Model the fold of this input.
Amino acid sequence: MSDFLIDLALPKTDRVVAIQWIVMTIVWTIAIVAVRGQDRDIRHFVLGLMMLNLGWFAVRTVH
Done:
């Protein structure tokens, strides 16, 4: 079980990172749509979290 969790946190292959990136893109798109009627600060906060998360996945694909 711990190997599975380590592989999720620090994947060994680009395939796993690509899958995580695709799944999180869908999740973040839903989050952005959910906060579109909220205050500008809330929208920017969620957008910032999205960019940070997807950027982290992009950096992980570089070897």
In short: Residues 14-34 form the longest helix (21 residues). The mean pLDDT is 83. Residues 2-60 form one domain. The chain has one domain: 2-60.
